[in-house]
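Reopening this ticket.

The earlier resolution said the output was attached, but the attachment link was broken on my side. Pasting everything inline this time so it's all in one place.
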Amino acid sequence: MNAHQAAERMLETGLFYTEILIAREFGESAKHGAMCLKSIKNNKRYTIVEEQHPVKKVKVIAIDGRRVTIDQLQNTALLFKRPNMLIEESTHGNR
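Inline output:
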């Protein structure tokens, strides 16, 4: 997982994430989750909402001004949902 993959997932779900929740989402350590969230918070390409109470949480609402995920844009352009076989191949290529 890198910060961009984490941000895409956060944008897709529309949920608030803590360091531990984002790490669990990708099967990574809490330390790795903390680094990704820190990177997302410090990078101007991500528009976020932060909550401090009762715990620190972050929600990504846009990436480079885009409010939908790349997958959602591709599905709209294709006029149908991308087959899982294509989605899995593109995900493996990013690792």
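Reporter confirms the inline version is readable. The chain is about 55% helix and 15% strand. The two ends are 7 Å apart (CA to CA).
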